[in-house]
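Q: I'm writing up a methods section and want to include an example of the input and output format. Could you take the sequence below and give the corresponding predicted C-alpha cells, formatted cleanly so I can copy it straight into the document?
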Amino acid sequence: MGRFARPVKEIRPWLGLALVLLASGCGIRAVLQAWDPLPLAPEAPDRSWTPEEPSTELRAPTDAWQQSSGATLPAEQKTYDLPAVVDVALRNNPETRRAWEDSRAAAARYGRSLSAYYPEVGVEATAGPSRFLFQNDPQPITIKQNELQPQIELTWTLLDFGRRASTAEASRQRLLAANFAFNRKMQDVVFAAQRAYFALDAAKGMQRAAEKNLELARSVREAAEERAALGLATQPDVLLTRQVDAKAVYDLENARVLVSDAQAALALALGVPANAPLEIADLESQPLPRNLSVAVDDVIDAALQQRPDLAARMAQIRAGEAAVEKARADFLPTIGFSGSYGEDIWRYRINGAPRDDVASPDYAYMFNFDWDLFKGFDRVNAVREAEAERDAARAELANLQLEATAAVWKAYFNYRAARKKLDYAESLLRASQDAYDANREGYGLGLNTIVELLTGERDLANARYLVVQTRAELLTRSAELAWAAGAMEVGTLR
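A: Here is the clean output for your methods example:
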C-alpha cells in the first residue's frame, strides 16, 4: 500500500478537471485507517461522514428533514447549475435519508454494546397487609400488620475474558461499515444526478440542433421552390425538399419528447415531482474535461485506497474477526459481583391498639464464578460459524476489489475514447458545414443537383446531433470515472 501515496496527490487535481462542473472545495474522503474518536452516525442526511470527526452524541436530523415530508426546491432559484442540482438531490433523495438512518441505527447498536461494561441496578418493593388470630384466654389476640419491603439490587460483570470487548468492537466496525456505506450512497446519488443533468442538457442540445436543421431544411425548400418558379428546378426537386422538411419537423417533435423524458428522469434522480419547476443551466459554453494525464494503474490504486464501499467491506471483515474472538471467549468463565440492600418495615396493631413500627435492615453481596464446561459442541460450532462469515467477508472484499478495478479500467478507456470521439465529431461538423456551404453555393449557380444539396444537408444535421451526443458522453464518462475511483465530490451545502 505504500505506493498509493504518490498517485493520490497526482490524481486529485486531474479529477477536479474531470469534474470541472462541480462546485469547488467539496469532497468525500473515505480513508482506510484507524479511528480513535468515538465514531457515530453522520450529522445529517446531506452530509458525508468523515472518520476524523470527533463526536460524543447522536445529532438529530436537520430541520429540513424534520419539518418536510416532501421534496423541496429553493423558491428564489429559477435556474439550477450542476452544484445546485447536486444540492437538491442530496437534500431530497430518499436513498440518502435511508442510508443515514441505517448509520444512526448502527450507532445506537454500538452504544448498546458498550452498556455491558456498566452494572445493572434495579429496585424492587413489596407491600401488603396481613392478619393473624391467636386463641388465648381470657380473650383472643388479633394482630394486624402492614409490611413494606423495599430493596435495591446490583449485578456487575467484572471479568469475562474479552466477551464484551469483542462484541463492542464488532458493533463499532459495523458502525464504520454503515457510515462508509452512507458515504457511497451519497456518491451514488451525486452520480445519478450528474448523469440525469447531462442527459437533459444533451436532450436540449438535440432540440436546438433539430431546430437549426428545420431552419436549414426550410431554407433549402424555399430555394428549390424559387428555382422551380423560375423554371430552373423540377417538381421532383421540390418534392424532395418538402420530404426533407417534413422529416426535420418530425425530428424536432421527437427531440421535444426526449427533453420531456429527460426532465422527468432528472426530477426522479433529485427526488422531486416531475412537474416541479426545474430549469437547468446550459452547459454548451462550459469548459470540458481535458485529456487524461495519469496512468490507469494510478487511478486503480487510488480507487482501491479511497472508495467508501471498499472501506465498508474492510470494516465488515474486522467485525467478523471480532466476532470470532467473541466466540472463542465464550469457552472461558465469567466473574461477577452481585449485591442487594433493603429493609423490612412492619406496622402493628394488636387488638386494634397501634404499636411501635419495626424496621429490620438486610443486605447481601457475593462474587460469582460461572463456567460452562460443556454445552453440546454449541460453542465449537459458533467459532466455526464466525470464522466462515469472516472468510466470506474477505471473499466479498476480494470480489469487490476486482469489480472496482474493472469499473475503473472501463471508465478510464471510455473517457479517453469519448475525448477523442468529441474531437472527431467537431472536425466532422466543420467539414460537413463546409461541404454544405459549397453545395449550397453550387446549387445556386446551377452546378450541383438538389440531391447533392440534400445529402450535404443531411450530413450536416447528423454531424450536429453527433457533436451533442459525444459532448454529453464525455461529461458522463468523466463523472463515471470519478465515481468508479471513489472520488465523486459532494459539497458542503449550507
